[in-house]
Amino acid sequence: MRRLAPAVLVALVLLAAPARAASTCARFEPGRDVGTVAADLTEISGVVASRTFPGVWWVHDDSGGRAELTAITESGQSLGTYALDGARAVDWEDIAVYGRDLYVGDIGDNLAAHDHATVYRVPEPAARPSGSSGRLDGVATIALVYPTGPVNAESLLVDPVSGDLFVLTKEDGFSRVFRAPAASLVDGARITLEQVARFSLPEPASTAFGLPGSLVTGADVSPDGSTVLVRTYRSVLAFARPAGQPLAAAFASAPCEAPQVEEPQGEAVGIAADGRSYLTLSEGEHVPIHRFAVRTPVSTTTAAATEPARSSSIGPLVGLLVVVAALGVVVATRRRAGR
């Protein structure tokens, strides 16, 4: 029996992963238009939900924009624009959140010519954004170096469980996942990233607008760390994090395709702070905001990412098949032993 354990465990893992991914996407509702971005932004490339002020979302422009963040409501009402003190905007591509801190990724590098990427970390304002513009102080500047040389990227996220920062590259047909440990994310640091995963991009169901679905353009992680959403121009992919595993383990299994609404140049995806929905936005002026409800909300706890993943990790049919297979092997082994 002891010799059977590894085989049975492998079978459980292989069978559970597809069920977990499918169960994740089954929780998402079709999208609907909930408003239009009122602020004068032309190339929104990142969106993230505030963890300090319920109902507030932070967005920013792509390359050519100013070094500032704009707060909006879910319906697109502008709540003010905040300049980041001492920051530069070369090619801002995505934004992430951890606790009260926002992380802005100046990580775009279309020509693969920069010797490092830059992430700015800044606390959210002390008072709830209410329509007036201002400045965000206490900006930390962190340099990121890829171990394989310059690479283009448009996706940034921070694990709510560990505080580690992740960058997902924008490469045709696949993406590499790089990590910077939480302890290294200090002002003035120059961090050599570690590659922790690589995944291929499935062909999306949508063929709209002619943009490729083989390039990663944005990402976000649920408040409990159990689900990672990865955006391409034509799809939203959902990766389920295995129970009790590091975030990189989510990319070891194939994703499912989450609901999306056709957008001219979809680059931004963000999960709500209460885990009850996610938003997508496109580049362009005064673009619509699409909201997708989550039937079984992901937990807002950051203590562990185990329960949501465990509850959907294996369906009844899969479990039955695994048990039957294991019993069959046990019976066959006992028969051979009795000869």
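Above is the first protein from milestone M3; the second protein from the same milestone is given next.
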Amino acid sequence: MTPRQRWEAVLRGKRPDRVPCDYWGTSEITSRLKRELSCAGDRELWERLGIDKLIHLVPRHPRATEDNWHLQSHFSVWHIGTRTVPYADGLGCYEEAIEPPLAAAASVREIEQFDWPDPGEWDVAGLREQCEAWRDYPLLAGSCELFYLHCRLRGMEQALEDLIVHPEIADSILEHIAAIDLALTRRILDEVGESLLFSYVAEDLGTQESLIMSPRLFRRFLKPRMARMIDLVHSYGVKVFHHDDGAMRPLLPDLIEIGIDLLNPIQWRCRGMEREALARDFGDQIVFHGGVDNQRTLPFGEAGDVRRQVRDNIAIFRDTKGYIVAPCHNLQPNTPTANVLALYEAAREYGG
């Protein structure tokens, strides 16, 4: 079976020839793997490791300064400043959002006067060529991360405060983001919807221990707007890939209610995210994606630890609607190559 066929089988509730596996990693570790495994490009790396890579297609924007963004929420287009921050003794770096452009806004009028992006400016026609290039792989395009982007526009502390103190400002910002994402996603789906398996409707609502907002606030500000996006995606016959970090279990029934099809990344070391309980309580309703721990096991464990965890995940999620083996978020550059190899070798060995 091709990588796409494996994912399609899982989404139909069927058993593919083996459990599919996906890859999430920083640019540094991806470059290192290609170098150490003598792979000329990404496709060769996926083939070498037997990865059924979910390909994220991105419509480009003529004013975007980023050239490596895997979603269309280019910070530069939204006037969000960034700076490069090194970590892990210089092994890697990430782009940190700074200078939120709406931090000082004190009224809805100021929000309305902001230079909001025009959803018609993104080049969706270029997606057809990308679809053709990756026809044997599962494809994802279109994204919506309402509060994630709100926090970058407003500053995280102010964005959280707005939900309680300035709800009219929060509503205005979130509604602008939602309208832009809906219009752009509709353009993407009109262009290449028949080629897609997924669109990305995501948030980062969990910390290591709890939610970043109460379920009441989630239902007030985010749930209805996310539901509009999910309904749009489903109207084109496309599934919803939902990414949500951390201890987000209290919101999972609400997310299932509005139609998410797949949950990523299953950070089971976070409070309330135990794999067995997730499989027991929600396994007949959604596909699970991720679950190979990259807080401890992948960067600091041995290859045998990784293999055992992959084996355990496959067993835990075997009787659910479906499971995709993957790291629970991006592999970091301090992860030994031997552990990455062990992850995908174990997926093939135990996933048949």
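Note on the second protein: Strands lie at 55-57, 81-87, 92-98, 139-144, 198-201, 239-243, 262-264, 287-292, 323-327.
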